[in-house]
Each structure stands twice: as C-alpha cells, then as structure tokens.
Amino acid sequence: MENEGEMILAALEGLSSKFDDMDLKFELLDTKFEGLDNKYEASDSRFEMFDDKFETLHTGIESISSRFEQLEQKTDTVNEVCLAMHTTVENEMNNSMQTMAEAFTDMKCKLDEAMKVKAENEILRMRIEQLENDMRKIKEHLGIL
Questions:
Q1: Phi, psi of 102, deg, nearest 5
Q2: Alpha-carbon distance 18 to 26, whole Å?
Q3: 121 located within any domain
Q4: Residue 145: partners with Cβ closer than 8 Å, 6 or more residues away
Q5: Residue range(s) defining the domain that contains residue 89
Q6: How many CB atoms lie within 10 A of CB 126?
Q7: 86-107: buried (b, 16+ CB within 10 Å) or exposed (e) per residue?
Q8: Could you tell me which residues come within 8 angstroms of residue 139 by beta carbon, excluding any fewer than 6 positions away?
Q9: Residue 125 dihedral angles phi and psi, to the nearest 5°
Q10: Gyration radius of the chain over CA positions
Q11: Which residues lie closer than 8 Å to 136 by C-beta, 6 or more apart?
C-alpha cells in the first residue's frame, strides 16, 4: 500500500506540477488579455476622440451650410432688388424718352413754323425793298425828289 500511496502522491505531485504549469499559463494569458484590454481601451479612446472630432467637423459643416443658405437668401434678395430697380429705371427712362420725343416733336413743329414765318418775313422784306425802289424811281421820274 505504501507503494500505492507513493504512486498516488507522485501522481498528485505530477498533477500539482501540471496545475502550477497551467496556473502559470493562465497568468500569462491573463497578462496577455490585460495587454489586449489596454490596447482595446486605447483604441476605444482613439475612436471616441475621432468621434468627437467628427462631431466637431459635422457641426462646422452644418454651420457653413447654414451660412451658405443665408448667403443664397441674401443673394436672392439682392437680385430681386436689382431687378426691381432695373424695371423702375427702365420705366422711368422710357417715360423720360417719350416725354423728350414729344418735346422734340413740339419744338420741331415750332421751329418749322418760325422758319416759315421767317421765310414769309424775308419775302415781305424783299417785296418792300422792291416797292421802295419802284417808288423812288417813280418819284425820280416825276421829279418829286
């Protein structure tokens, strides 16, 4: 029995040695898992940092988009104002040009009348001179002068 006890004791010591060996391997695995866990936490921290940066970038893009929409609205307003001004100026110019054309036509008619009167006056002046010359000749012929 002693032999059997020694065998059991040897077997238990072998098992104890194997358990110690396995315990070392589990500790090594535990250390490796801790390293992986640390790397995972570092990666997770980096992803959170990237997520924060992405969120900041997204907010910036939304802000730029909002400003761009405001700029488009202001541009549309400026275009509307310019179109209204253009239409107003065009209407005013058309009215002014129409008034000037009418005034020019009136002035041309008055100038034509004035030129007609001037021509008639010139003809009358020439007839008066002719009559005066004829009168002088008659007076000279009659000896009145």
A1: -65, -45
A2: 12
A3: no
A4: 136, 139
A5: 1-106
A6: 10
A7: eeeeeeeeeeeeeeeeeeeeee
A8: 145
A9: -60, -40
A10: 60
A11: 145
Model pLDDT, residue 14: 80
Instruction: Identify the residue whose tokens are 């040897």.
Output: 10
Phi, psi dihedral angles at 64 (to 5 degrees)? -65, -40
Is residue 120 situated within a structural domain?
Answer: no
Q: What is the number of structural domains in the chain?
A: 1
Q: What DSSP string describes 15-33?
A: HHHHHHHHHHHHHHHHHHH
Q: What is the pLDDT of residue 100?
A: 92
The tokens for 86 are: 């253009």
| Run means of pLDDT, 10 residues per run, the chain, 145 residues | 76 81 87 87 88 92 94 95 92 90 91 92 94 92 80
Asked if residue 112 belongs to a domain, the reply is: no
Q: Kindly state the tokens that stand for 22.
A: 């396995």
